[in-house]
Design brief:
- By secondary structure, the protein is an alpha/beta fold.
- The protein has seven helices and five strands.
- It has helices at 15-24, 33-44, 54-75, 87-96, 105-108, 135-151, 164-173; strands spanning 5-8, 28-30, 81-84, 115-119, 156-159.
- It has a five-stranded parallel beta sheet with strand order 2-3-1-4-5, sandwiched between helices.
Length: 175
């Protein structure tokens, strides 16, 4: 199974835009799991949300992310797979939120990905219905995500602030 590439960074750094552009260029992509779960749980009126029950939320994200990563790897041959975040991001959110991360993370995270691309923070930060964190939290989690990938042994490629198409070109040149 080919190891996927990770597109990561704090909230509002342009991950979804980059993922969509990679998709348009024909790459296999896996959409962000946390946003999917937030939208689903909000529609149900559930408390499995990061601002209500971070532990239950991160456990749910971990299980779903692991399933999506495995399925994507099984369905594609040698075409690069790009993930909008990974199980390591959930670990960083758990650490920052002072909840115990999923116990399997230490076993599963190291060596799981080919390369990690961290998108540098954009000058403007915008919230929405799923991204409600304030700017300080966005900065803190960005730093914690970088720390987590390094903790699990990844050399992180920093993607500079550029127009979206140029960010994608940068990533492709650095595969």
């Amino acid at each position: 199974m080919p190891k996927p590439f990770v597109i990561t960074g704090g909230p509002g750094v342009g991950k979804t835009t980059v993922i969509e552009l990679l998709r348009k260029r024909g790459y296999t992509v896996v959409d962000e799991t946390a946003r999917e779960i937030i939208e689903r749980e909000m529609a149900k009126g559930s408390d499995v949300l990061p601002w209500k029950n971070l532990k239950a939320f991160q456990d749910s994200v971990f299980a779903r992310q692991l399933e999506k990563e495995t399925r994507a790897g099984e369905s594609v041959g040698s075409i690069p797979i790009f993930l909008d975040r990974s199980i390591v991001d959930g670990y960083a959110y758990s650490v920052l939120g002072n909840v115990f991360p999923v116990s399997d993370i230490a076993r599963l995270a190291p060596g799981r990905y080919t390369k990690v691309f961290l998108l540098e923070r954009l000058p403007d930060y915008v919230t929405d219905t799923s991204r409600i964190e304030d700017l300080q939290f966005a900065k803190d989690i960005h730093a914690e995500i970088l720390k987590a990938y390094r903790e699990f042994g990844y050399e992180v490629v920093h993607v500079p602030v550029l127009p979206p198409e140029e960010r994608v070109d940068f990533i492709i040149r650095n595969l």
